[in-house]
Amino acid sequence: MQRTLLIYSSIDGHTEAICKKIAQHLGKDEIDILPLSADIELSKYKSIIIGASIRYGKYREDVFDFIESNLELLNSKENAFFSVNAVARKPNKNRPENNPYLIKFLEQTNWVPKKMAVFAGKIDYPKYKFFDKYAIKFIMFVTNGPTDTSQTYEFTDWDEVKIFSKDLNL
Questions:
Q1: Count of CB atoms within 10 A of residue 116's CB?
Q2: Residue 3 β-bridge partners
């Protein structure tokens, strides 16, 4: 039986948490959840779902490297991609067709995922180091987001994660 792979690129762990929730909604035992940095034999998977987060307006370079190195294999499988970013907390930026990061991602890669989603992320000020805390606070100030650095703000719409999971039809 071929398995499903949920692979993620995450800085603070929230994309991994979303992967775990997707796996729960899929309700299968044949799911592996691994970081993008793991040594993975992709050929053994029937389906590959990639989740990647944004930090300072960019996906990590390993996301692009992974896709470029495995483009043919990805295209031969059931596949999906989801982006996790704080700008998706805004209703006019929370869909693949209107999220600037996902749009730019599609322009920067030759991959067109069969299914796509955008999920709002999480701002965890208490967890951040000094530079990240105040850089993110400034970004949130400019974009009318929360700036109280003593708080954690989770913007993820878990119902949307569930809908995406069910739409995968795996």
A1: 19
A2: 45
Q: What are phi and psi of 85, to 5 degrees?
A: -155, 155
Q: Is the pLDDT of residue 63 over 70?
A: yes
Judging by DSSP bridges, how do beta strands 152-154 and 78-85 pair with one another?
unpaired
Q: Whole-model pTM?
A: 0.92
* pLDDT, tens digit (0-9, with 9 covering 90-100), for 27-36: 877 899 999 9
User: What is 60-76 written as a DSSP string?
Assistant: -HHHHHHHHHTHHHHHT
Q: Tell me which residue of 64, 103, 96 sits closest to 82, measured CA to CA.
A: 96
Asked whether residue 1 carries a pLDDT value surpassing 80, the answer given is no
Beta strands in the chain (DSSP E): 3-9, 31-35, 45-55, 58-59, 78-85, 115-120, 122-124, 152-154
Domains and CATH numbers, the chain: 3-122+157-167 (3.40.50.360)
